[in-house]
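>> received
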Amino acid sequence: MPVKLQIAPGVFLWREYFSPSEQKSLLEEVFRKLEDVPLYRPVMPGTGKAFSVEESNFGALGWVAYRAGYRYQPDHPVNGAPWPPIPDTLLALWSEVADAPPPHCCLVNLYRAGARMGLHQDRDEKDVSAPVVGVSLGDEALFRIGGTSRKGATRSLVLKSGDVLLFGGEARLAYHGIDRIRAGTSRLVPGGGRLSLTLRRVG
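>> returned
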């Protein structure tokens, strides 16, 4: 297992937790599952503006965004299909790095060139005692994380393909986001871009 690096209190990083061959196998499995629950663009609550990222989910529950707000639900908001099971590889990862019962949700985000994600908290879950675990596949991303106040200081780090990031404890409700994607830094994702796989317990 790669070395566990502490980035900040409650924030840990494993560089290239998944080898290049493991990344390829995981990516192929993810895209097979996405055939039943295709990537789509959610819209921002209130404004209805489309996200710059494409999303889908695996697991018992999936996170979705509507004009009316955010929620977890058991099926795809466009085609009504139930979310496929979370890949065993990701469940094994969770059991290795997260001291918590299994996750309910794996949020799948695809960032093409130019996509980003503003600072936000993962706070739609009833259970925030469990950490959030994220896997990066494909192009490098400039990730930013701060504290539990939007106005607090932040720090940034580059997430590379195969990296795993965990934040929990006092950092569970930390503001975080993706400033930008470094397009062309990987050839793993067909068509280019970064695939983010985020594991969460919902409650």
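>> The radius of gyration is 16 Å.
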